[in-house]
Structure to design on (153 residues):
């Protein structure tokens, strides 16, 4: 577990945050070539990669499928599950054998409802972890997360 804390957004959590959040994660492994989810599938899980690589692919309505990025240990994907989207907006494919931890977006939302003060900074850390992929994304993602989670207050 120390490896998980050191390589992901979990590293900066307080002990209270970690104790509330970590039990909601479950391990998930898959061999190379596994489609983890497809664009349009129900957005259920947020994943943290512990080992291996994942390709994120997108199919625009008017063109061929493109690879947006390759993710590796410490990266997070599947964030549609926590920003209020009912479906994933891209495909996720393991390009090597992967080991991940995953959490249901609904469980994270439930945690927020029960512990809003503790969870606000978890959402900020999550936004920081995902945002390097896009310019000004930290603030855009923070707004999406806040709008999705804060509506439950």
């Amino acid at each position: 577990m120390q490896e998980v804390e050191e390589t992901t957004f979990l590293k900066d959590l307080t002990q209270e945050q970690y104790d509330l959040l970590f039990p909601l994660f479950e391990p998930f492994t898959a061999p190379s070539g596994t489609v983890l989810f497809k664009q349009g599938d129900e957005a259920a899980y947020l994943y943290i990669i512990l080992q291996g690589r994942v390709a994120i692919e997108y199919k625009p309505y008017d063109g061929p499928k493109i690879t947006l990025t390759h993710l590796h240990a410490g990266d997070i994907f599947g964030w549609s599950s926590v920003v209020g989207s009912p479906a994933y907006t891209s495909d996720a494919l393991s390009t090597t054998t992967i080991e991940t931890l995953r959490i249901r977006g609904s469980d994270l939302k439930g945690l927020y409802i029960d512990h809003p003060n503790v969870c606000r900074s978890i959402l900020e850390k999550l936004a920081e972890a995902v945002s390097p992929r896009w310019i000004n994304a930290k603030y855009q993602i923070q707004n999406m997360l806040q709008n999705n989670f804060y509506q439950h207050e």
